[in-house]
Each structure stands twice: as structure tokens, then as C-alpha cells.
Amino acid sequence: MKEGFFRPREYHRPNNLQEATWLLSSFGKRAKLIAGGTDLLVNKPPKVECLIDVESLDLNYIRKDGDGIRIGAATTLDLIERSPMFSAGPYVVLSEAASNMATPTVRNMATIGGNICNASPAADLPLALMVLDSTVKIYGLGGSRVLPIGEFFEDVNKTALDEDELLVEVYIPPSPAGTGASFLKLRRHQTAIDLAVVNVAAKLTCSDNFCEDARIALGAVAKRPIYAEKAKSLLTGKRLDGKLIQDAAKVASQEAKPIDDIRGSAQYRRRMVAVLVKRALELSITRCET
Amino acid sequence: MTKRDISICVNGKWYELAVEPYETLLDVLRNRMGLTGTKSGCAKGECGACTVNIDGKAILSCLTLAVQVDGKEILTIEGLPKGAELHPLQEAFVKRAAVQCGYCTPGMIMNAKALLDHNSNPSEKEVRKTLSSNLCRCTGYERPVKAILDAATIMRGKDER
Amino acid sequence: MKDRLSVVGKSVRRIDAVDKVTGQAKYCIDLKVDDMLYAKLLRSPYPHARVTKIDTTRAENHPRIRAIATIDEVPRVVGYWWNLRSEKAMKRMYLQDNVVRFRGDPVLAVAADDEESAQEALSLIDVEYEELPSLFDPIEAMKEDHVKIHEGGNIAIHVMKKFGDVAQGFKQADYVFENRFVTSKQKHASIEPIGTAIADYDRSGRLTVYTSTQLPHWSRIYLAGALGLPVNRVRIIKPYTGGAFGGRCGLIHGLEVMCCFLSRKAGRAVKMSFSREEDFEATEARHPFIIELKTGVTKDGILTANSIKLFLDVGGYGTHYIGVLADALSTGVGLYRCPNVTFEGYCVYTNKSLNGAFRGYGNPQMNFAQESQMDMIAEKLAMDPVEFRVKNYRGLGEIDPVFDVPIRSDGMKDCLTKGAKKFGWNKKRTRKVAEGTKRRGVGMSCLQHGTGARFGLPDPASAIVMLNADGSVNLVTAAADDGQGNRTVLAQIAAEELGMPLEQISVSETDTDIAPLDGGTHGSRQTYCGGLAVKRAAADAKMALLRFASQHLDVEEENLEIKDGVVYHVKDRSTNIRVGDLMRKVQIEDLSRCEQIIGHASGVAPAMPPTFGAHFAEVEVDMETGEVHVVKLVGAFDVGRAINPAHVEGQIIGGEAMGIGYALTEGLIIDNGKIVNNNFTDYRILRACDVPQIDAIIVESNEPTGPFGAKGLGEATMVGTAAAIANAIYDAIGVRMRELCITQEKILEAIHRGASASGL
User: Fold this and answer.
1) Topology, domain B4-79
2) Which architecture does CATH list for A62-172?
3) Residue C513 and residue C217: Cα distance in Å, rounded?
4) What angle do the packed helices C385-392 and C412-423 form, to 10 degrees?
5) More exposed terminus of chain A, fewer Cβ within 10 Å: N or C?
6) Cβ partners under 8 Å of residue C556, min gap 6
7) Average pLDDT in the A220-238 region?
8) Pick the CATH number of C17-23+457-603 from 3.30.365.10, 3.40.109.10, 3.90.230.10, 3.40.190.10
């Protein structure tokens, strides 16, 4: 039971980013941004004095930028799930991750920014963004800065944002030809809607079964979503075959640092990393050809 | 005084209210406006019993602050019938015996309404996927799914006429 | 069994469906009373402690706090049902002490002008506890002499029943199977949280309580006793209920009784509403069982002996444990023909939240063990599991030894054969399906579940049928409808018996001030027990009606019948009178009479007819992850007669879905006395995309003692689901899962261990 209650006394809906960051820096820890509310109003943290709504900041968009795509932080997950921009090619991994989150009604409200900033170690979206080499744009009193998504997550529910900063955009760069990506989520059985026991995203760029580049991201097995760097190194520059995939999967499972919790034991999770990585790689290979 | 003035349109009628920043839309509908048809099942967005429609979307009112919907149009279960005539979804739920204890029913119907407003011919799979936002402990979902498909057929028929 | 019934046997619309789909139906949580206060409980953070000090001074000075009630003055209502039978025993129902026995056990309640203030007030109250050692394991608690959770010790009851001579029986067996099974603490998780109550103790000493209890009349008596009021000054009104499943089978721990005391103190109505977390953490759940089962069988497949030893985890307080234990007899002793049985049960207190009634009571637990064991036996004998059941179940004409009564209707064979056929049992069984990492398997189970509690508890049902001057009918009943639709079914029975159209029957509110004594909605009893009372009351009214009609039409009563609201001469239809016209004359126009027809009935049903059933399950197991998915389920049930087939189907599908949860996804997880999965993310009930194809088969065996042949159903629908699934898993991967719930980790572990069929 939490001490204290969720009783903010002020609610603001700033019209521009300057106003938003000014509010954030004035209130510091006593302020919370609110977008869809699907994390904030579940957690209802005490000692929040001020709510800052992102609704009027014009951050709800999905647009092409050259060959890349920009997604506003306040874009709801249902739009990402259904966007024709993510219906083919390696971007499919993003719509797969989005469609696997929570329930459809929650996805009508939850935003990509809110999800990323909540920084749950078991989050689905970050894994897809990580394998796509996404970057995030952050805005603060000092202006904007850009970070690779992998550096945005610092710890459980902790991001690289300073008190005066907010996430404004996610950028997804183009992928080279011959790239296939996939997202897999292992839940507790007979429940299609669940938090991940283990989740995994993989991306391969290959030609004729030769792996030019690889990305593997693991979720729910560390304090934050992580890249399986050793597994990636094992694959890069090699001919892909069943044994190599098996080995890479095993190496990835050794890179995981899972814990025991209500959804699964550490031992089981480690085993499942290997299973999921193998399956995700196999799936990604078939998608390279398309 | 921390209350804020808001204007919300509920079931076609505008209301002026003074609300605290932390009051949810669910609180306001049920406790301030006496519209108890929208239910509270978990207060955490997991059960879907609190589902309403805002801008044609199915929205969880327990995870929406009243201040966030200032100026918006909200549709609740009470707003579905046209005078004495029930909405085809309501009729279908009755006809198909899709209602047992009825506690999840308003949430299911409001969710289904948003679905059918966007997709007039959903497959059973699509209906089940949408309905996965609503927990039901009585029916096993079989008849509610059938009712929604029935309603879709009827609504398409009405449109074609 | 096709006969000329007009209303019974038809899937008529529920009489309350429109209220529900329009949002007009009011549940307890929706109700308001003028000038009402809001209450909250302060709950113990310790699993076992003595409350040594309660200082309410700061809270009392809070301007919006109106009353405080503590466990020093408010009794806990426990073990009620069994103690109801004697006035002396009733005193044992009210436990008054300063010990808290589980984490979340209420210590006191506060009533305030608004919810916020009530919540704030809790932090203004200082409570001091003397922590006591806690016991979480029932086996440990049983052996423990020094730490006593209750005065009489930790064993709430020990029962031993013997039939025949098991030692002899095992000697006669060619094979003996011995296994240990464990089941889980399942939670009702009804979508309306358990629970909300409003108590209004008015200035003239009359108490009205709005609560969604399954047992309005018994709850009325419990509360009257708690407050020292005569029963007629206590009124229970049950509004619409958002699902019960046994979770509201009496009073809710700390809810109604606290509200009543607060209301009396404050002189105003008091409403208390538990959060979903409180529902998960501190209200009744299904008793976990440990089952030690030893069964002997001849090589021809005849059962010779069955030794059953059960350990029930009661939790901090006992409410339903005796009945739950007794209910296991249904499967353990009643279901199969076996001359030598011992049945031993221990119900043990532990410092965890209390356990109580839950759909099936003790039968799903026992059935999981017994039907898994029978599956092992059938395999050893190389017998079709269906054939084995047909050979051994106790059926028509046989005496059920549990209550020493004959079985008068028996649809088991139909359930088994129709179920097997619909499922494709023979084909699926002989075809081994393995595709990549997936393996499929099939399994089945059968069951028997008694209707009502005639031979175990006070089990009254009453009804009043009032004919109005226009021929319309008011049916007055205290039957609590929690979503099953019993009020609709009772209206159908009344309409059929009277010969009136269903639209002319209106059913009363569930209000103890106007509706006569009823044993409540539990034990799948309302259609059968409630239905019999309604049928008798309607017959009573019909007799009076025909007497008047006879006088009016100058025709002998035996030559009259009522159809569609008109009294006809059986041979000459032109001689008739509308019931409405007749009633107008009798009730209003004839100034010398002005007599209303009031049919009534009250009493018990003559039997507890068992409902038979069979489940067939097909599962798919992922050998790499251990995940199990149920891909198809068939449930066939003998309901005697389906008064409303749509209702019956609804119960079957809903019950099976709950059964899948019991097998694979549900179970409260307790860590050091704390329930850690107190939300719908981690306590997983099935969603629309999780439910497999479920086929419902209705079998009608025409129970002679039942209203139009009907008997119960509500609970039977999930009694055998877990065993069918466990047996299917065995078929798929050769591993026996003996513990619920079956998780993918346990499956993977078992696959890796390469556990064999007869080992552990």
C-alpha cells in the first residue's frame, strides 16, 4: 500500500515545448507528464503536484522524412499498429511489437512516448526500436538533443531524461535492402494478453544466406532492454545455417541477466531467450528475402 | 481551490462542471452525474468495464482524467438508445442471451460500438481481438461475440437500405 | 422426451436483460442512500498478531469522521452455516477477540462524509500489534502445538468415514495406484468486485442492508444475531449482482457487519466498497486441497478399494470448510461404484486469507485427483477411458452411499457417448499428432455433482404466486439471481404450471421484507429447489383459480384446463373464460367476495439429484517452451431438463472457461502470507481471444423429483475440466501433472526430467 495519495493540485496543457519544459523545470520531481495516462493513472504516484498534458504539443504524427520515418511521442499505439508505413519490410517489427501490447482499448490511449519513458524492462516497443537503430529526440531548457534508443534506458523505470526534459520524437532510419526483422513475445500460457515473460526482437540484413549485419534485442531479462552484442558478433559476416543460429541463440541467452519474479524464474527465462532468439532469427531470415 | 471548470458533452448534452485535477472521467460520470451504467471493475484499466466512446474510439474512463476531456464529446451506454428504441448491439445482446450478470455488458457494448463504427464487417477473429479488452467471468465470451456479429449484420442491412 | 410444454424448454429472453444492456440495472456499488457515509477498513499488515492498542483520538477529532468501530466491539461472523442449526451453536458464529489471523484481516472501520476523508482517517489511527508466529503450511500447522491460530487448535475439523473394508479391498486388487495431488487457491474474480454493502440502521432500530449476498435470508439471520436484533427488524435487499460463483455465499468478511455497527453508531447509512485489490487479498477463495489417493482395481477394470485422505487449507477463519470437505464425497464416494472406501479429511487453519465457497465447492479439487487417477488406471488396463467410466460409474437405480438415496435420473452414458462423438474422441485418440515442436493430446473426465443441500443443511425454498385482478401474476421469491438467470427460469416454471403466458409473470425484487424464506443461491439449487417451490405455489394458485372457474362456468374442475391465460373446457373450447376476466369478477366486481388468489409453498426438496457430466479436452503442447494451449473442449451435461436451453449453454461455456483457468492460468500466489498477484495482470482469467472452441451438449434424463424434470447445473460445468486437460497433457507428452495450476515451467521441467507415467 502506498503512503500518501495521488492528489495533483494543478493541471496544465502547454501549447508549445518551451512552456512544457519551463513547467517541468519549475516543478521538478513534483510534476508528471500525462499522455494516455495508462501508466500514470495505474501507478497513481503520491507527491505529484502538477500534471502537464502533452495533448496540445502537436506530437501526434507518423511522417516520412526522406527514407526514414518520424513518430511523434504522443502518437497512440493503435495508429502505430495499423499504420501502412509499418505494414511491410523490416518496419513490420514495430507494428508487431505494438500489436502485442496490453489490450486494444489500452492501445487507443497509450502513446509511444509514454511507453518508452515508463522504461519497463519488459516493454515490447523498445526492442523493435532498438533493432531498427532508432533514435529519440529530447527537448529541454537547453534545446533539443538526440540519443540512440539503446542509451535512453538507464535502469528499471529510469531513463536518460533530466527533470526539465521530455521526449518529443522517435526517428527510424531506413534499412538496407535484404533486411528482415521480427518480434516475438513469450507470455504465460493460454493468455494472449500479458506482460512478457521474455520478449525478443531481431533484425538481419542478409544476401544469399550471408549475414551482413544483425541486431538482437532482449527484454524482461535485465534491468533494461539490452542488445545481445556477443550473439550479434557471432552472426555478422558469416554464412547463416541451423548450427550458427543455434549457437547465437545460446550465446544470447548467456548475455541475459534474468531474475525470478511472478511471471517466471530466472532459469526458465534464460532458456526461453535461446528458444525465442532462435525462432526470431529464423523468421527474420525468411523476411530478408521478401 | 484547486478545482478546474470544464465543459463536457455527455450523450449529446453539454455540462459545466468544476473538477479536481485527479478526478477520473469514471468518477465524474458515476458520482457527479449519476450515470452509473459505466462500471468500475478494477480502477486500473485491466477489465474494460469502464469503457466509453470519445471521438469514436473505445476509451477506458478509469484511466482518463476529467480535465483531459474538457471540450470533448463522450458517449456512454445510457446514450445508445434512440428514445425507446434500443441500439442494434443492445438488441442483439438481449436476443442472443449474451448477458448473464450484466456487469461487463455496458463496457463490451461500448467497445463493440466503436469497432462497428469503423469496421462494419468484422470477422469473428477481429471481434474476439477487440473484445479481449473486456473481461467477463460468466459467459465464456461465446454469445457476446455472436451478438456483435449479429448486430453488425443488422447495421449493414440498415445502411444499405 | 418431447411433450407439449409452452414455456419450459424454450430459450426465452431474460427478464432483466434490457435493464443490463441499457445500464439501468443498479448493482450495490451504484446505489446511494440519502445522507450516506462512506467507510473504509484498516487492515492488519501482519499475518498473525494480537492487537494490543487502538488509539483513535486523532481520527475522532477529524471534522468529517462520524463513527469508528473496532474488533473490540464487532464480532467476526464465522462457521455460520453449520452453527445455524441450533441456537446454542449459533453463539459460536460470532468470534470476538483481538487477534488478527491473516494479512488484511480487518482491525477497525471508519465512516466519514466522503471516501477521501475515510481513507485519510485510517492514517490518523494508531494501532499497536504484538506479532505472533505465523503458520502458512497446513501440514505444519496441523502438527503445531504451541502456535494456535484458534483457541481449539489448528485443526478445524477431522472427519473419518468408512464404507466396507479397504484393507480387504486392496488385497483383492490386481493393481494399486497411489498418488498425491495438490490444488490451488482459485479466486472468483467476478467483474463486480466483492463487495459493496450499504447498512442503514434507522432511529427506530430497523436495519436495512443492501448487499449482493447469495443467501439473503441466512445473512439476515446472521446479522440479526450479530446486532442483537429480532429477525423482523432486519431487512436484506439484494440489488443486481455482478457475478458470485460462491464468493458471496453468506456475509463478506468485515463488510456488512462493520457497516451495520458503524451505521448504528453514526445514526446514518454507511456504504463500504472493497477495491479490486481487497477482493483478491481479503475475501474468500477456493480451498486448496492436498489429496492422497490410493485406488485398487482388478485386471478386469473393477474398482475394489479407494482410500482418500484430504488436507484442506482453511485460512485464518473457517466458513464453508465442512461443506467443502463433505462435497468431496460426491466424487470420492458417490461417483464410482466401489464397495470399500475410506474418506478422511483434515481442515486446517493457516495465517492466510480465508477460504470458502467457490463453484463446485470441494468437487473440482477431488475430481482433479480422482479423474487423473482413473486415467492412469484405464491406461494400465489398456482400456478406453470412456469405457472405463461407463463400466464403473454409479448410475440409475443404484444407491448413492453418501446420503443413502437412490439415483433416479442418469444421463451419464449419453454425456459420455455424445460428448465423445462430438469431440471425435476415437479418431483423435488413435491419431498421434506431432508437428515440429508441438504435440497434441486428448483427455477426458466425468463427474457427478449433487443438486442442493437437502441432506446436509437447512435447505428451504418458498414462493408466493399472486394473481392480480387483470390476470397478471406477481411471483414473489427471495431467489438471488447473480447472473445465472434463475429469476427468469422461475418465471418460466410459474407460467408453465399456471398455463399463463410468460409476459404475464413479473418477479419480485430480492427483499427479505416481502419474500419468504429461501436457502439461497448456492449448490446449483435454484432451478430445482426454488423451481419446486414455485411450481407448488403456482399449482396452489391454479387449484383456487380452477375452483372459481368451475363455479363460474358450471363445469367440473377436472374438465377444465388453462392455456395461454384462458380457462377452457377440455372437450368444448367454446366454453371458456379469460383468467383476467374471472379474476376481475372475483377480486373486484363481486362485492361479497373481493378475494385475491395467493398461492404459496414453503419447504424442502425431496432429494439431491446428482447432475452428471463429461469433459473432453484437446491440448497442444510446445515442447520447447512448455506452453499448453487448449484447442478444443466439449462439455456434456445431464441437467434433467433444460428449462431454458440458452441459459444452460451459457453456463457450460462460462464454466468451462473458468475450468481452463483453474487448470492452467489461475491461482493466488502467496509469499510469506502476502498475496502477490492481486490484480488482473497477474491473476489471469481467460479473455475472448483465449477461449478455445467449446461445444456444449445438453442431455436430458428427466429427473422425476424435479420441476418438469430439471436438476442443477451451475457448478458441474467446471468440476472435471482440470482433470480432462491434465489427462490430455499426459496423452500429448507422457507426463502426469499432479499439481494445479499447471504452468509452462512445470511442464518444461517435467519434460526435461523425463518423468514416467507411474512415477512422480
Assistant:
1) Ubiquitin-like (UB roll) (3.10.20)
2) 2-Layer Sandwich (3.30)
3) 10
4) 170
5) N
6) C550
7) 98
8) 3.30.365.10
Task: Say if residues C398 and C407 touch (Cβ distance below 8 Å).
Answer: yes
Q: What single-letter amino acid sits at C390? A: V
Those chains having 3 or more beta-carbon pairs within 8 angstroms of chain C are A, B
Contact C547, C476 (CB under 8 A): no
Determine the distance in angstroms separating the CA of A223 from the nearest CA of chain C, rounded to an integer. Answer: 20
pLDDT digits (tens, 9 = 90+) for C210-239: 999 999 999 999 999 999 999 999 999 999
Interface test with B, best of A7, A11, A48 (most B CBs within 10 A): A11
Out of 2.40.128.710, 3.40.50.620, 3.90.1170.50, 3.30.70.360, which CATH number does the structure's domain C31-132+195-273 have? 3.90.1170.50
pLDDT (0 to 100) of residue C759: 45
Give the integer Cα–Cα distance in Å for C460 and C470: 31
Q: What is the spatial distance between Cα B139 and Cα C20, in angstroms, rounded to a whole number? A: 14
Q: CB B48 to CB A103 under 8 A?
A: yes
Mean pLDDT of C419-437: 93
What's the rounded Cα separation, in Å, for the pair C213 and C256? 10
| Three-class DSSP category at A172 | strand
Which residue is associated with the grid cell 484511466? Answer: B63
Task: Give the closest-approach CA distance of A286 to chain B in angstroms.
Answer: 26
Separation CA C482–CA B102 (nearest Å):
9
Which residues of chain C lie closer than 8 angstroms to A122, CB-CB? none
Q: How far apart are CA C698 and CA C652, in angstroms?
A: 9
CB C14 within 8 A of CB B99: yes
Give yes or no for a contact between C638 and C717, defined as CB atoms under 8 angstroms apart. Answer: no
What ipTM goes with this model? 0.98
CATH class entry, domain C285-395+409-451+609-753: alpha beta
Which pLDDT score is estimated for A290?
Answer: 58
CATH of domain A10-52: 3.30.43
Query: Do the chains contact at A41 and B68, CB–CB below 8 Å?
Result: no
**Nearest alpha-carbon partner for C447 in C369, C523, C356:** C369
Name the minimum distance, in Å, from the CA of A55 to any CA of chain B.
8
Q: Measured between alpha carbons, how far is C22 from B91 in angstroms, rounded to an integer?
A: 10
CATH for the stretch A180-288: 3.30.390.50
Q: To the nearest whole angstrom, how far is the Cα of A38 from the nearest Cα of chain B?
A: 6
Could you write out the DSSP letters of every residue in C257-294? HHHHHHHHHHTS-EEEE--HHHHHHHS-EEPPEEEEEE
Between chains, do B102 and C681 touch, taking CB under 8 Å as contact? no
Mention every residue, 6+ apart, whose C-beta is less than 8 A from residue C466: C473, C474, C475, C476, C541, C596, C597, C598, C599
Which chain B residues are within 8 Å of C681, Cβ to Cβ?
46
CA-wise closest residue to C553 among C581, C588, C594 = C581
Q: Nearest CA to C502 among C485, C490, C512?
A: C490
Report field, pTM of the whole predicted structure over 0.90: yes
Q: How many A/B residue pairs have CB atoms within 8 Å?
A: 71
- The phi-psi region of residue A46 (left if phi > 0; otherwise alpha if psi is between -120 and 50; otherwise beta) is beta
Task: List chain B residues with CB under 8 Å of C243.
Answer: 100-101, 103, 137-138
**Bridge partners of C638?**
C612, C699
Task: Tell me which amino acid residue B96 is.
Answer: R
CB-nearest to A189 from C116, C682, C744 is C744
Percent residues over pLDDT 70 in chain C = 99
Is there a contact between B116 and B122 (Cβ–Cβ < 8 Å)? yes
Chain A residue with the nearest C-alpha to that of B49: A105
